[in-house]
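Ticket #4471: structure output looks truncated?

Reporter: J.K.
Steps to reproduce: submitted the chain below (476 residues) through the standard prediction queue, then opened the result file.
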Amino acid sequence: MKVLRNYLYNAGYQVLAIIVPLITSPYISRVLHASGVGANAYTNSIIQYFVLVAGLGVGYYGNREIAYRRENRQKLSETFWEIQILKTLTTIVTYIGFIIFLQIYTKYTWYLWIQSINVIAVAFDISWLYMGIEDFKKTVIRNTFVKLLSVVLILTLVRDAGDVGLYIFIVGFSALLGNLILWPQLRKLLVPVKLRDLHPFKHFNATVSLFIPQVATSVYLQLNKTMLGAMIGAKYSGYYNNADQLIKIVLTLATSLGTVMLPHMAAAFAKGNKEKVNKLLYTSFDFISLLSMAMMFGIAAISLQLGPYFFGAGFGPVGPAMLIESVVIILIAWSNAVGTQYLLPTNKVKAFTTSVMLGAILNIIINFPFIYLWGLNGAMFATVLSEVMVTAYQLWYIRNIVQLKQMFVNIPKYLISGIVMFIPVFILSNTVKTSILSLALEVLLGVVIYIVMIYILRPTSLAQVEQIIKSKVKRA
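Returned output as attached by the reporter:
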């Protein structure tokens, strides 16, 4: 039940982190127009490379190492400060590199300077500590205030097409403030440590080993936007970014389980309980598949109308882009279950790195011809094929370690349920005039059809869900 509770907390936080720009995006797209949205997306895609280098793989590594040592507060405290000192140093070096970069690259200079607040924010990001000790409640509560504050600031201060820089500042400052607000709680979590006992650079090689797959992942997450902006115009970076935002908020509900399960699995692995680790993987993979299959077919069914309706006039290309990208929901959900929840906590970092490297290499190879031939949709196809490569390799790697048949036992039933749901919702979405009411009814119809189909086909996961519901009812 602790895992389920933490999943709900983390899902809530992750959804909030993504939903804030989605609440403001319909407003921003109409105020800043496609050119302003594109300028933000393009410059942000560039700054994310520096954010990545500054973070140096600490997100996954720190989460795991804290989980290993959470039973010993002295070792936990020493590990935290060692990793934090290392990350602070890498952030300083990275920011110096960013300053040098701006002496060479002279486009959108002012916007890039403002975007660099996101690099500074990396130094103060200690969310990995809270994830390692499986304390998600405080993170959610503290950051909710900051996220809501950013919404208020955007809606009240960003007024016309000339406020692109102000919008970028508000988003970056919110990220920085959100990280700072977690620090006061450290007094209760950590014990005093002696500086001479700290050895931050002993973590360098391990963080770099996790930094490599994050670089590779960033290639096909950010490179598409960067290349679209460079090859066919910044506004296409905006189209890609908007389509990706809507897909990712749906995906977050599934992948949030990965953040929760990583420390849980790491703790079990540290105790040598491999049987429990495998059992957790089977359960998690099945639960993620149940959710993500519904999400994939659901968002695909309404995508053609949702994209342009949500963002307004001038954002028509977002709909078809969303339809293509919807496939990554199931692919990333699976690779998250296998990679983040199994390979990383069981210290199979090489296999995880190889999978994302293969995806990145494929993305680089096909991006140029795909964008040249099909523009925005080509970038989306490249993204999907890259995720196919990542997921396929991870599943191939674990084929002799776990029982794939047990992992996929319910997939045909989820697939049938998703297809049966997709057909009527897709027809309805492209027949009636799009409005908030029609979209709500389409979503409701999809949920009802999917649930009914699950009850008809009765996958093994249904028994677990019913058991959870019964236990909740008894407690109530």
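Triage note (M.O.): checked the attachment and the full token line is present. The chain has one domain: 2-409.
Status: closed, working as intended.
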